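Q: Here's a chain of 392 amino acids. Please give me its 3D structure as tokens.
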Amino acid sequence: MESTLGAGTDVVGARTPFAARARKRLRGHAPEIIAYCVVRAVGLVVLAAMASHSGHLVSLLTKWDGSFYLEVARHGYDTALTYRPDGSLVNTDIVFFPLYPFLTGLLGLGLGVTAAALLVSLGSGIVAAVALCGIGEHLYDKRTGVILAALWAAVPTAVVESMAYTESLYTALAALTLLCLLRERWIAAGIAAFFAGLTHPTGIAAALTIGVCLLAALLRGERGGRVWLATAMAPLGMLAYLAWVAVELGRWDGFTYMEERGWGSDPSLAGVWQQIVRSLTHALPLGYEVPVFVLGASLLFALWLTLSRRIRRDGLPVLAFAWISIALALFIGPTYFHAEARFLMPDFPLLLPPAAFLARRNRYTALCALTVCAGLSAWYGGYLLTIWTHSP
């Protein structure tokens, strides 16, 4: 009996330090988690108020692309090439990247797919907030990190972070990639980038960022195998998915064929420029005007980020990811230019300069600025889902 009790005491004693460390770590992350959740809660409350005449809140959070992700989670991909009588290709869900619906389907076995999808988005948003705070703290301080997480929760299209969309999951994986690169944890960065490539059309940005860091390491004379291994594994997630689509559709260009012929997506820098000029010279609905504003602000913030001495000295991964993400977002094409602001959402490094600026102000000034951003984001999110007639 004494031996048994002693063994049990040892087990409890072994568990207690782990539990204590977990609680301590959770308390350490509490500021950014609370800041993120409060801002997103404001957005959902405003959306619920605006949705009282437009449908159930859950149906709004699972509309547009969300309905396709839910369908994939329930029944898998539609891998057929079907043509209408006029010869046009029927668009299918095979162009929606697989990691988010896979996680949704897995969690949905116990919760139901709809609840699982929204829970995956919420959990991903919290992970993203923690990773963003870690990046801000690494480059500046804890306060900058918390403000960075709050600002990302209050971008114009932040309502998408609470929807059955991939932006929260992709941002979390991209942020983990950058955080690992800043801490020189190459293998972990490569793994995070691998999964980022399975999540979002611009997920290759994480892999390209590792490639930039590889070149910088080579210039510094580093020859470690971990650097090469991380660079090699980073793009494999996206490449594997594109290869699978090609096999299923029976075309080597299966993904781009479905995107262009089925979904009408035609990546074109000239087309984007035409949309910008049109928005600046014509009175258009707000849903067309805001993407132009967001793109312009993104370029200004990217320049601000580039001019930061601290970022140039210590933040190469952040700087590379910021510009690569902008470059990829510019090729969204004219058909879906209204979603430009959403495609720029994962480019969170652009928010580092304003976050650092607010962190140097007094608490009242920072709180007022965040409150204004949260309020505007909440209203615009409600507009996108209850008034605007296209995807956010």
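Q: Can you summarize the key feature?
A: Residues 31-253+265-386 form one domain.
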